[in-house]
Amino acid sequence: MAKRIQWAELPATLIESISARTGPILAGHAVTAGQNSPLAAVLATRNGKVFVKGLPSDHRMVITQAREAAAAPLVKGLSPELLWQFDEAGWTVLAFEYIDGRAACYQPGSPDIDLVVELMAALSVIEVPAGPWKPIERRLRTYVEDPVDAAHFAGSSLTHTDWMPDNVLVSHGQAWLIDWAWATPAQSWTDPAFWLLRLVAHGHTIKQAETIAARLPAYAAADPDHVAVFARANTNMWTEIERDHPIPWAKTMAATARAWSESRHDR
Fold first, then answer.
1. What is the H or E stretch that residue 165 is in?
2. What is the pLDDT of residue 147?
3. pLDDT digits (tens, 9 = 90+) for 103-114
4. Would you tell me the crossing angle of helices 190-201 and 112-123 to the nearest 10 degrees?
5. What is the per-residue DSSP string for 74-125?
6. Model pTM?
7. Could you give all domains of the chain from N- to C-terminal order, each with its CATH number?
8. Which of 167, 166, 157 lies closest to 136 in space, CA to CA?
9. What are the distances in angstroms from CA 116 to CA 77, 99, 167, 266?
10. Distance of CA 185 to the CA centre of its chain
11. Using CA atoms, how far apart are residues 189 and 222, in angstroms rounded to an integer?
């Protein structure tokens, strides 16, 4: 997790590189949501607001910036538009269209659920070209009992994989998907599967969450045995995250993953 840098604390050379593209910056403030980028700020300019995010060019996670840039042209209309990017002044920076929205609500009965289903349905038909991706079978191979089992998740669909509510902005009746740092080629049913864990963590029963996920045809048609392997992999992944970061959200997600995996095992 990256420590967020306040706008006023950024290097002057970095601010100059940004303002060379935005024009005079009237105000800037760091956003509180998100964990991957030390630079994440909303800037007010004479031409309106813009959202910028960045990492030092030598940061070990700089590949996530490349993934976001590569995903941007594939998800126009589903995600804020990528306006420009640069790698200079020791930083790699992306600038996006600013969406004035709120984090999605995943609680039972929320109207946002329908918006996310629509968003996920549109996403499910997008194929991934060659790029800076880490395929899901490589991402999850250490979390399955047999590395060969990770091949069950392999596919060519663009998946987001990180469906925390802060990554879905709701604005004027539309859900926008942001933060493509973990964009991954995979079977399209894996995104609904990742999402249903979030639904359970926010108050749905496992049955309710799976019913919602099954509104996505890819999840409804997924091989139950493959879903069970995926559930166990998520249990192992979240147990590791809980061990390394024993904070409330990690504990909640780990307990949720264990409950889902046990429910699949009992069928």
1. none
2. 87
3. 999 999 999 999
4. 160
5. GSBTTBPPEEEEEEETTEEEEEEE----EEPP-STT-THHHHHHHHHHHHTT
6. 0.93
7. 7-97 (3.30.200.20), 102-265 (3.90.1200.10)
8. 157
9. 14, 16, 11, 29
10. 13
11. 7
